[in-house]
Structures are given as structure tokens and as C-alpha cells.
Amino acid sequence: MSRTFAYLRVSTAGQTTETQKRQIAAAGIEIEDYRIMVETVSGSVEAMKRPGFVRLVDRLEPGDTLVVTKMDRLGRNAMDVMATIARLGEMSIRVKSLDLGDMDLTSAAGRMTTHILNVVAQFERELLIERTKAGIDRARAQGKRLGRPPVLDPERRAEIEAGLRKGEAISALARQFKTSRQTVQCIRDHRGKVNAPAENT
């Protein structure tokens, strides 16, 4: 008798799989809790290197069905997703992704569709990375400051440096300028590097 399993994945501990569970229920698929594998792991990690997914595959038998809400739950790398689907197909496991309807991803049509969609998705991710890098490079070339704004303006920073030179306590300076001890320590450490004597070469 065939059985149905589900693999639910999120990338970080702050995320939840409740939406994925609701999507499966909304599709009219009933899966017992003990046949649902929930895992917190990045999609960039190969499927067969994820402890939870490996345990799930070990439980699957010929004729079973594995359900995911989207293909990216299996992975973000097109080649890895294709390899995972091929492996499950060799085990006679039917793979179903809710975003593709009732198509069996291990079938010839399913493998072709999966390959096309994954290649497109991977291309879009790489294009986004390239655009982001180009934007950062352009901003740097224009002299724009990247990252967080400085905690202290130059005037207050100079006053803290003056206090450090006088030997004032870090905690007292932090209270006086309403900043953290770590910020004052960073200013002190920076001064130490700037004023350090050059090594003989």
C-alpha cells in the first residue's frame, strides 16, 4: 500500500513551516504527523547532506509519494534538485510539488519541467547577486558610505579620544556620551593602532 510523506523546510530558526502545512491541507492531502519531516537548513545545502532529509529517504519505499509545497524546498541548485529527483525516481518514489499541480516530478515530463524551472530560478538568483554587487561597486565608486552610519559624530569621537588620552575610564566616558563601552573600546583600540610605532623592516 502506497504511503504519502511530506518534507517541509525553512532556512532559519526564526521561520515556521505552518504555511507549508496549511498549503498541503488546502490541497486536500492528508498526511499523518509522523510522516512529515520538518527541517531547518539552508536550501544551498545539498539534499542528501541534510540529516532530516536523509532520514526521510531511508523511510521511503517503492510506491510511496513525497510531497513538497515548492521545488525550492528540495534545494536551490538546479543540478542538486535534478539529482535528488532522479534518485527518488530510481527508488520508484513519486515526487509531487504543489506549485506544479499533480505532476509526478520523476516522470519524463516532470523531470523536463523541473529542469527548466530550476535553471530559470538559479539564473534569476545569480542575476540578482550580480546586480547587487554592481550596485555596491557603483556606490563605492561614487564615494558613498556603505553599512551602518557611525554611532558618534567626529566631534564627539574627538572628545572621547581626548578623555582617553587623559586616562579617563572607559565606563565613565560611555556614560558621559551615552554610548556603549564597546564603542569607546573600539575608539581606544583604533587610537592604539594609529599611534603604534612602525616596525623596522
Describe this structure in words.
The protein has 201 residues and is of the alpha/beta class. The protein folds into 2 domains: 4-121, Resolvase, N-terminal catalytic domain (Rossmann fold, 3-Layer(aba) Sandwich); 154-194. Helices cover 49% and strands 10% of the residues. It is built from 7 helices and 4 strands; from the N terminus they run E-H-E-H-E-H-E-H-H-H-H. It has helices spanning 18-26, 51-59, 78-90, 108-141, 154-165, 170-176, 181-195, and strands at residues 4-10, 36-40, 65-68, 94-97. A 4-stranded parallel sheet has the order 2-1-3-4, with helices on both faces. Helix 3 (78-90) packs antiparallel against helix 4 (108-141), helix 5 crosses helix 7 (181-195) and helix 6 (170-176) packs across helix 7. The chain starts with a strand and ends in a 6-residue tail after the last helix. 18% of the residues are buried.
List keywords for this structure.
2 domains, about 50% helix, 4 strands, Rossmann fold, about 200 residues, 7 helices, alpha/beta
